[in-house]
Design goal:
39% helix, alpha/beta, 23% strand, 6 helices, six-stranded mixed beta sheet, Pyruvate-ferredoxin Oxidoreductase, domain 3
Length: 173
């Protein structure tokens, strides 16, 4: 079983990324649950999305201590790091989380900067982050995620989203 928490602020697309991850798992015949919560603000409020992927039935659909925590803001990193296990992999946007909490397994990627510099808009940061999560987790294949992305994003943006996915996947050694 793999438990992943994605966190950031409203408008960063963490919920969409979590939905796509869960859809990819289901396409592969795995069990998956996805849940989300967000602040009352439409944009800028705290946002959290969780995904659990398993080969067996999932009886408790809430992430307790994630295997992977994605934090796209300093506030999210500070808030959710306390719930990490000792071996949780913490993935942060290195520009938006300049002071990551102390953790044994930290992965820093310039997620938003890559979106702006390579694709022209920060809009693609969530799909870059998704590529990072696919690579680190190994819970789903990149091919399944590509299909789920193509199914979820506007047709006019499929090509750029595929590039964003590739950028994230390749950003992790």
């Amino acid at each position: 079983m793999m438990e992943i928490r994605l966190s950031g602020s409203g408008g960063q697309g963490v919920i969409t990324a979590a939905i796509i991850f869960a859809e990819a798992a289901i396409m592969e015949g795995k069990e998956a649950v996805q849940a989300q919560s967000y602040g009352p603000e439409a944009r800028g409020g705290a946002t959290k999305a969780e995904v659990i992927v398993s080969e067996r039935p999932i009886f408790h659909p809430k992430v307790g201590q994630p295997d992977i925590l994605l934090a796209l803001t300093q506030q999210a990193a500070n808030k959710y790091a306390a719930e990490n296990k000792e071996d949780t992999v913490m993935v942060v946007d290195e520009d938006l989380v300049p002071e990551p909490p102390d953790t044994k397994r930290l992965v820093k990627v310039p997620i938003t900067r890559l979106a702006v510099e390579k694709l022209g808009r920060d809009l693609f940061a969530n799909i870059i982050a998704l590529g990072v999560l696919v690579k680190i987790s190994g819970a789903v294949t990149i091919e399944s995620v590509q299909k789920a992305v193509a199914h979820r994003v506007p047709k006019a943006t499929v090509e750029k989203n595929m590039e964003a996915l590739r950028l994230g996947f390749e950003a992790v050694p």
